[in-house]
Amino acid sequence: MVDLTDLLTDLADESAELDALVAPLPADDWTRPTPAPGWSIGHQVAHLAWTDHVALLAATDAAAFFATVSAAPEPARLVDHGAEQFLAPPAELLTRWRAGRTALAAALAAVPTGEKLPWYGTRMSATSMATARIMETWAHGEDVADALGVARPASDRLRHVAHLGVRTLGHGFAAHGRPAPTAPVRVELTGPGGDTWSWGPADAADRLTGPARDFCLLVTQRRHRADLALLATGPVGDEWLDVAQAFAGPPGAGREPSATPAGGHGVRA
């Protein structure tokens, strides 16, 4: 089992990496559009600040958390409303995001072992919440990096994102209105350092292999399967490439394939 203290350290490091990318930007760059339709770099950071805020409520005041859900004027636009609500000039937004993520880390560290926190359509432990925050911070950091035209180096923190992606296999199918598969899937990913990360029985007929970063881009819906070096074997593994979703809520729109698909990526076997 992953230690919560280690998770919170990795969350702080993931946040600090994105912070270092956006903090020096001139104000005009915060309005740059990102791959998420209608969202600027400022919206991406505001979304993280808002999600940290509601996660803090979930960890410290469940009634207040549920009140934010019931008070939402348009439940289908809850995420967009949150980003718009927290959007502010860069200096103010950075201060809010930094304070919020620090408060959330302290709150998660204080959650009693075994306690489940309310969340959208589910309940989760403090370790699961911290893992989800790493996933979201990394994914929205990719959106920011894409907007700026920069490539971020992959780190071993991706293992948390990959682990969440594997654990949410059934959710991805359910979110798309499909029955959760009963056949196990063997996942073997190559980490940034060249080591292999694996999940599932070694003798499973359905398999998914490839670079860990590509798998993380898939389950956060930051790239289309056609643009990733992921190889699926078996019907479950293949269908998973179409519905993978590591985040809560309804199915995302995903991304369209690039103009020049990568040959052989996402091969159906």
Write structural notes for this entry:
- The chain is an alpha/beta fold and 269 residues long.
- The protein has 10 helices and 7 strands.
- The chain has helices spanning 4-22, 41-60, 62-70, 78-86, 90-109, 126-148, 158-167, 169-175, 212-219, 235-243; strands spanning 117-119, 122-124, 185-190, 196-199, 206-211, 231-233, 267-268.
- It has a 5-stranded mixed β-sheet with strand order 4-3-5-6-7. The protein has a two-stranded antiparallel ribbon with strand order 1-2.
- Helix 10 links the parallel strand 6 (231-233) and strand 7 (267-268).
- Helix 1 (4-22) runs antiparallel to helix 5, helix 2 (41-60) packs across helix 4 (78-86) and helix 6 crosses helix 7.
- It is globular and about 50 Å long.
- The two termini are 33 Å apart.
- Mean pLDDT is 92; it is low at 261-269.
Distance N terminus to C terminus?
33 Å
Lateral arrangement of strands in the main beta sheet: 4-3-5-6-7
Query: Strand count, sense and closure of the main sheet?
Result: 5 strands, mixed
Number of helices: 10
Find the count of extended strands (DSSP E, 2+ residues): 7
Overall 3D shape? globular
Low-confidence stretches: 261-269
Question: What's the pLDDT, averaged over the residues?
Answer: 92
| N-to-C series of helices and strands | HHHHHEEHHHEEEHEHE
Strand content: 5-15%
Gyration radius over CA:
18 Å
The SS-based structural class is: alpha/beta
- Name the helicity range: 40-55%
